[in-house]
Structure formats: C-alpha cells, structure tokens
C-alpha cells in the first residue's frame, strides 16, 4: 500500500477555465505540497501526471476526467484511460467506482484489469456505503468518499460540508483503508477525519485553487 496511514494527500487539479490550468502550474503545486509535508498527490490527465512524476517521488493517484454527454461517470471511465495514466507515471489509479453505466468495462472488470494487467493500486471514488462495499469486494486498494454530493442520489449533501457520516460508516463496515475526500477544506476537518479513523485525507480546492480561496475571502469582505 503506497499511501501511508496518516497521510495528507494534495489534489493538484485545474480545469481549462482556471488561470492555473497547465502542467507547469500543477507540477509547481505538487512541489509546494511536497515541501509542505504532503505524502501523496492526486492529479488529472496524462500531461499533469507526467509533469508531476518528473518532479516528485511521492505516490501519485492519477485520474483521467473524461466528459461524455451519454454518461454521468467522468473519473477514469474506461481501461484505456487508466492505462494512459499508468504510463504517464501514476502509481495508483483513481476511478469512479459507482455502478453507474460508463463507456467501457463495468466497474468490477475495470478494477480487476487495473490490478492484474497494469499491476497498479486502485483508488475507488464512491458516494454511498453500498458502492463502497462493492468496490471493496471487487478488489479496490482504497475506498474514498470523493463522490458524496456529486451523484444524483447524493446531491443533497453538496452544500453540507464533508460527508463525515459516510466516512464513519465506511470505517465501521470495511477492512480496507478508507480515505476522506471532498470538501475537507479546513485543518480542523482534516483532524476530525483522522480522529474518526480515516487512513488518509485528500484536500484539493482549499489548498490548490486560489480562485476559489479568493472567492471565500471576498465573500467574507462583503458580508
Ligand atoms: C467530485 C469530483 O469531481 N471531485 C474531483 C476529483 O478528483 C475534484 O474536483 C476535487 O477537487 C477533489 O475530489 C478534492 O476535493 P476538494 O476540492 O473538495 O477538496
């Protein structure tokens, strides 16, 4: 298992509409995260993963976000996406591990192929306890709360802060390392996740998205 217990993992992602979009910026973010003590990096796309691989030996959770109007699944939907990310240098492949339809193998086969054919660890993003149980049964290395609030069934959670209840339910139910991810946006919430038994915590926006961080401060300035 490449992500050590107690690790803070920093997600370094910026979409095309973000002024920090681009592998030069994301690899600098990863270096800054490492210098600050992060023990893992999460990154999206072949270019960013390759650029980050070139500057750090930390474990990289690589994902490939692909938007296809026919499907709701967009985080590493198919085996080819996983293979490209592995070749770019990811040690761990992050996937949408919900049972929702996707362009490619069903999730059970996707997990098996990443483990057997790519010999990589699988980081399973889920939104519910049932999805987590299935991902564990299919052989996921880690199970993470990433998608709580972002699937149809869980949209009511979105404005609510991180899903600590789901985190706790997963820790109680499954012997696999459980990772807290999604809206853990203060040091206090990170500490709370570890107190409840998280194996690791992934923080994105609150560390690596200055546009969103600025908005928070501006809202406070205008309140
Ligand atoms: C739902 C989805 O697509 N989540 C993405 C997964 O890679 C990212 O957009 C998030 O930034 C990441 O999960 C970290 O979460 P937060 O930025 O809240 O700390």
UniProtKB/TrEMBL annotation:
MF terms (GO), sorted A to Z: N-acylglucosamine-6-phosphate 2-epimerase activity
UniProt record, GO biological process: carbohydrate metabolic process; N-acetylmannosamine catabolic process; N-acetylneuraminate catabolic process
Top enzyme class: isomerase
GO cellular component, one term: cytosol
Swiss-Prot/TrEMBL keywords: Carbohydrate metabolism, Isomerase
Catalytic activity: an N-acyl-D-glucosamine 6-phosphate = an N-acyl-D-mannosamine 6-phosphate
SUPFAM superfamilies recorded: Ribulose-phoshate binding barrel
Protein name (database record): Putative N-acetylmannosamine-6-phosphate 2-epimerase
Organism: Microvirga vignae
Lineage: Bacteria, Pseudomonadati, Pseudomonadota, Alphaproteobacteria, Hyphomicrobiales
Gene: nanE
């Amino acid at each position: 298992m490449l992500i050590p217990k107690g690790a803070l993992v920093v997600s370094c992602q910026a979409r095309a509409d973000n002024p920090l979009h681009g592998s030069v910026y994301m690899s600098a973010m990863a270096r800054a995260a490492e210098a600050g003590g992060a023990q893992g990096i999460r990154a999206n796309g072949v270019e960013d993963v390759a650029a980050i691989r070139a500057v750090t030996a930390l474990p990289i959770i690589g994902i490939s976000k692909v938007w296809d109007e026919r499907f709701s699944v967009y985080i590493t939907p198919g085996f080819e996406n996983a293979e490209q990310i592995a070749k770019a240098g990811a040690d761990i492949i992050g996937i949408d591990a919900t049972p929702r339809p996707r362009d490619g193998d069903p999730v059970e086969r996707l997990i098996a192929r990443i483990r057997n054919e790519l010999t990589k660890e699988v980081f399973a993003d889920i939104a519910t306890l049932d999805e987590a149980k299935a991902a564990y049964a299919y052989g996921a290395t880690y199970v993470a709360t990433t998608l709580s609030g972002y699937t149809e069934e869980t949209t009511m959670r979105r404005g609510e802060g991180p899903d600590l209840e789901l985190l706790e339910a997963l820790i109680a139910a499954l012997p696999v390392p459980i990772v807290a991810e999604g809206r853990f946006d203060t040091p206090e919430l990170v500490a709370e996740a570890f107190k409840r038994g998280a194996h690791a915590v992934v923080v994105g926006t609150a560390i690596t998205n200055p546009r969103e961080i600025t908005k928070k401060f501006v809202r406070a300035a205008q309140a």
